[in-house]
Design brief:
GO terms for molecular function: iron ion binding; oxidoreductase activity. This protein is an alpha+beta fold. Helices cover 48% and strands 17% of the residues. The chain has helices at residues 2-18, 25-45, 57-75, 85-98, 120-137, 141-164, 177-189, 206-211, 237-244, 250-253, 337-368, and strands spanning 225-233, 257-261, 272-279, 282-294, 298-304, 310-320, 323-333. Strands 1-7-6-5-4-3-2 form a 7-stranded antiparallel β-sheet. The model has no long low-confidence stretch (mean pLDDT 92).
Length: 369
């Protein structure tokens, strides 16, 4: 993965250096948007008394466009052919070298040049589209306008969604549910071992599902919440961490921990245990993996729970005069939006209070021992 990132960064530097200094990304995107909207508006302005069944041509045409996009993307974009030589170079050669799975967002607007199709392509695409409109208009003007307008709408949807799939993760559009899912599918498509065989759909995964090329892996959850608490304890760091890093002791000092399933004593890296909890007003069960144990210094473990809950727990001890300072850092996040909302409104403050109470309880238990 690091090798891919390094290669992509090097390619980006070379590619950007070769972009003409007069290239204007806003003019590029603005022309495509204005051209498409202008002709869609004109075509649909010609509609008269559209029958309900005629509107079905819009989704049908969008599915047809998606089928065509899938075929072109898979057979020309990822296979070297005489007919698609230029497209193959621009797509597999440039686009897939500029963007890899772990390096998907563009960094400046000038990077749109490697995301958007050349501006002239929408004009070229519109020529056979208008030819189809002219032919269909001899049969039914409404059907002709709906078909041609929907084909242009499909083209613009491709450009828009594809651009969203390369937005920075913090951009508001990136957080929209549909865009978020398509961003994940597209990132998997940019994985080296998958790009020639999986996830060719850009706007939706229907064609990949029908052709058996759909590949999905859940994205690692971003741990949206971070809480850190400190307490000074008049005991040696080695003793404090040895006690705290023994999950079997957690019910003695942490109010959220109900029961531990695992061996006694401090656990080391690669060991596992399970825990029944009642945290933030909710009962649950966690499966823990110990990641790190450095006696008298650091202990870390991660956990998974229900509703896509993931946690990262870190204990650290810093020697101070008369004892040590114990630092507890809890990072957690939920995969589902309902649980994220519940956490924001109710659970987070309760978990904060419970964590604060645990620090005092740990202090009292160790001082009395």
């Amino acid at each position: 993965m690091a090798y891919d990132n390094d290669n992509a960064q090097a390619f980006r530097r070379d590619y950007r250096a070769a972009v003409h200094p007069l290239y204007n990304p806003w003019l590029h995107a603005g022309f495509v948007l204005a051209y498409g909207l202008l002709w869609i508006g004109w075509l649909w302005h010609t509609l008269e008394a559209v029958a309900p069944w005629q509107w079905l041509l819009v989704p049908a045409t969008l599915v047809f466009f998606s089928w065509g996009e899938y075929q072109v993307h898979r057979r020309l974009g990822h296979n070297r052919t005489r007919l698609g030589r230029l497209f193959y170079k621009r797509h597999t050669g440039d686009h897939h070298s500029f963007f890899v799975e772990a390096l998907m967002p563009y960094e400046t607007a000038r990077d749109w040049r490697v995301i958007l199709f050349p501006a002239w392509l929408i004009v070229l695409f519109s020529l056979p589209t208008f030819a189809a409109w002219w032919l269909l208009s001899h049969v039914d003007g409404n059907l002709a306008a709906l078909f041609a307008g929907s084909m242009l709408l499909g083209y613009m949807s491709y450009e828009l969604v594809h651009a969203c799939e390369h937005l920075p993760a913090e951009h508001p559009l990136s957080r929209l549910p549909w865009i978020r899912q398509m961003r994940r599918l597209h990132a998997l498509h940019h994985r080296r071992e998958l790009m020639h065989s999986r996830n060719f759909g850009i706007v939706h995964p229907l064609m990949d599902w029908l052709h058996g090329t759909l590949h999905w892996e859940p994205e690692a959850i971003h741990l949206q919440n971070r809480q850190q608490h400190r307490v000074r304890i008049a005991r040696p760091a080695e003793q404090v961490l040895a006690y705290a890093a023994a999950p079997s002791h957690w019910p003695e000092w942490h109010p959220s921990s109900l029961r531990i399933y695992g061996r006694e004593g401090a656990l080391i890296a690669s060991e596992r245990f399970e825990e029944d909890i009642h945290a933030g007003g909710r009962a649950g069960h966690l499966r823990w993996d110990v990641l790190d144990h450095q006696p008298a210094r650091r202990w870390q473990a991660s956990a998974r729970g229900e509703h896509g809950l993931q946690l990262l727990l870190t204990y650290e001890c810093v020697a101070v005069e008369g004892g040590c300072e114990f630092v507890r850092t809890l990072e957690y996040g939920f995969a589902s939006w309902p649980m994220r909302l519940a956490n924001l409104l109710l659970m987070r403050r309760r978990i904060e209070r419970e964590s604060q109470a645990s620090m005092q309880a740990l202090h009292d238990v160790l001082v009395r021992s």
